[in-house]
Amino acid sequence: MTERATDGQVWDPYGTLRRVLWIGGGQWAGKSTVARLLADRYGLTAYSYDFHDARGHNDRRIARRIKLGHSPAGPDPEATWVDTAPQDMAAETLAGFPVRFEWALDDLRALVSGRPVLAEGWGLRPELVAPIIDSPRRMVVMVPTEAFRDRQLRELPRAAGVGHDLSDPTRAQRNRLERDRLVAEDAVRSARRLGIRVIEVDGTRDADAVAALVADHFRPYLPPAEDRKA
Known about the structure:
This protein is α/β, with parallel strands linked by helices and 230 residues long. It has one domain: P-loop containing nucleotide triphosphate hydrolases (Rossmann fold, 3-Layer(aba) Sandwich). It is 48% helix and 11% strand. The longest helix has 26 residues. The chain is globular, with a radius of gyration of 18 Å. The chain starts with 19 loop residues before the first strand and ends in a 13-residue tail after the last helix.
């Protein structure tokens, strides 16, 4: 549950959360690339959810496992990627997002920036972000089409596998892709229910063009042209 101040508002000691622009959505949609382009172009302070979630939050993740009576080493990769149905994988991922979102909020609360903050990552879910933003226009959800996801898998080395020594890596990869598809579909449903814009990335626009589309969506919150970095 999002931490609240005594007046009922979300705790935001430096006013950072009020200035955040959010990019959520599915895996392999180009969220990180777009965020980097916009940060460079407008001098924004960028926050990568995926980077912090995988690295900076590991101590919290381990502590939570111990508190729940689980192994601090985490779940067995074979059971996670090979033996679990994609629908169950997706449900478990979605159930874990609220806790992981609180960790991201703590990171963002600690930032002090004279520029807008742009946060991106698949765990920045519309239903979690919506209660703390003053307008749906502060968020956009990017999701890949099936064809674009396939292209990313061919062209991005980090998308080629799950990174473990498994008995059936082909099945593991298939399970992961189906999980990612289900999680992305859930993000789209949530965004549309909340009036948050969905951008479907199909590869017909290059990264600069997609970034321009997102910038246009965030236009009311971006620095004026004369303040932009080259």
